Recover the amino acids of this structure.
């Protein structure tokens, strides 16, 4: 480290707990009296360093980040922010011209979106060039930006998201989860963000990241998830040791693996590799689209990793080193693990249509026989996710007793009786009155789980009453008790239906 940089660092460490660090003051104590702007740049680069962890305030001074955890969001994510929209449109104008959405360039982008959507539905891998990256950003950025924030609520609600975060984003793509994370954090939070992205999507990502806040420190590593070695992040640009992400007491606070596992040859092996780089109290957030194949695959990876000891050297006080499913899936019976197909996803309110999607949609030719109205508008927020930790913590830490509750693994012996059951609500309504995915019928229907089931279980509301309405009001992932629910086998669906009617009492368990 240069003498000048080391002098700035030493002064900052001395002053951080005394008073706000002012670059104009520090420059007087550094040999050569560098300009305050030079000192400020040094401070910005040093800010995420362990032992400093500084945030820059609006007045240009630096102070230590607070210890208080991040609070959860209040209310839905309503729109993709205008700053990011403008940055994306600037990139599109630079690449394709002012009329990027029209004429030949618009036709190219529309055909590109159609092509990668088709390949995705066929289960084929999408190869990213500049055009695919641009089309992917137009179509997917808003939904992924919103989805990650809803998933982070599960951590923030329980005080598990610190104001100082070291994050590794595996397969960062064009940046939807990165931007969502940056906006989820308050202005006085410190984010050290590392992205792994080998494709042309990284060009879009690098254009958008500068729009994040002053206390977001970003680095993009242009390599594959399989090739990247987290240990290479153990030193800064001057060779000074910063942290060892593979050490028992160090590592990343959050590892993101969003919409990438389905594109890997061995997703469980890659996820296991990055779980080893978690801090003892860190979390891996894996996400996938809500469609059947990728959602089921995500749950399969989760189950293959569960109970594996990936950090045998983990600190005894900070973690066990063994993979635990934190949520939203539950494990309510000791020693039991689910073996159903695992198709569970959350659905949140649609976003406002961003201008760049509207432009691409409205410029489609009326003579195009392949065009379907709304084809290039994608503001749905539907996603599957899994939160994995190494400290044994679960979002819902409950152990049931067969003396009080029926176990879903033994549901065959309860049909066709009325029973008492506890389960997590793991879907919004799947009926035709809901979003129509997977099941049909006029009655509200929800996937439920207690973590022991071999086949799918659904709660079907045939008669709504004040006593069973809590099921309709419960949030995704929330635990509910069902008293006097009727257990039936649905031969057509190959699943158990738990009928909620006028005799059933449902309570939300906090």
């Amino acid at each position: 480290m240069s003498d000048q940089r080391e002098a700035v660092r030493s002064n900052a460490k001395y002053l951080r707990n005394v008073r706000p660090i002012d670059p104009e003051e520090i420059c007087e104590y550094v040999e050569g009296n560098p300009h305050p702007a030079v000192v400020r740049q040094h401070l910005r680069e040093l800010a995420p360093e362990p032992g400093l962890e500084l945030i820059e305030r609006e007045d240009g001074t630096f102070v230590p980040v607070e210890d208080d955890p991040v609070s959860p969001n209040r209310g839905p994510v309503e729109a993709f922010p205008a700053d990011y929209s403008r940055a994306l449109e600037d990139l599109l104008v630079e690449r394709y011209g002012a009329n990027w959405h029209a004429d030949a360039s618009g036709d190219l982008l529309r055909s590109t979106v159609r092509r990668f959507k088709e390949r995705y539905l066929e289960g084929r891998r999408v190869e990213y060039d500049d055009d695919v990256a641009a089309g992917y950003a137009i179509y997917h950025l808003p939904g992924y930006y919103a989805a990650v924030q809803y998933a982070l609520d599960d951590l923030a609600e329980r005080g598990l998201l610190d104001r100082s975060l070291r994050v590794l984003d595996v397969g960062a793509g064009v940046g939807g989860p990165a931007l969502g994370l940056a906006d989820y954090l308050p202005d006085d939070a410190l984010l050290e963000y590392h992205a792994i992205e080998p494709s042309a999507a990284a060009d879009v990502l690098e254009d958008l990241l500068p729009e994040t806040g002053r206390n977001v420190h970003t680095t993009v590593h242009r390599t594959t998830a399989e090739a990247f070695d987290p240990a290479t992040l153990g030193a800064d640009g001057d060779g000074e040791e910063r942290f060892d992400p593979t050490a028992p007491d160090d590592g990343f606070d959050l590892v993101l693996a969003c919409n990438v596992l389905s594109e890997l040859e061995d997703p469980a092996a890659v996820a296991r590799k990055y779980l080893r780089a978690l801090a003892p109290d860190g979390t891996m957030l894996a996400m996938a689209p809500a469609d059947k194949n990728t959602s089921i695959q995500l749950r399969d990876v989760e189950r293959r990793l569960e109970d594996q000891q990936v950090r045998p050297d983990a600190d005894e006080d900070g973690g066990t080193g063994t993979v635990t499913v934190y949520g939203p899936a539950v494990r309510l019976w000791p020693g039991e693990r689910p073996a159903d197909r695992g198709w569970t996803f959350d659905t949140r309110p649609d976003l406002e249509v961003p201008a760049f999607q509207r432009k691409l949609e409205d410029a489609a030719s009326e003579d195009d026989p392949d065009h379907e109205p709304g084809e290039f508008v994608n503001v749905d927020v539907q996603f599957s996710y899994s939160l994995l930790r190494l400290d044994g913590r679960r979002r819902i830490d409950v152990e049931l007793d067969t003396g009080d509750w029926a176990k879903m693994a033994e549901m065959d012996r309860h049909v066709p009786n009325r029973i008492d059951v506890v389960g997590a609500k793991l879907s919004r309504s799947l009926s035709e009155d809901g979003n129509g995915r997977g099941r049909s019928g006029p009655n509200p229907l929800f996937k439920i789980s207690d973590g022991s089931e071999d086949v799918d279980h659904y709660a079907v509301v045939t008669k709504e009453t004040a006593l069973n309405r809590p099921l309709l009001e419960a949030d995704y992932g929330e635990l509910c008790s069902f008293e006097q629910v009727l257990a039936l086998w649905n031969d057509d669906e190959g699943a158990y239906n738990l009928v909620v009617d006028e005799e059933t009492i449902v309570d939300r368990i906090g």
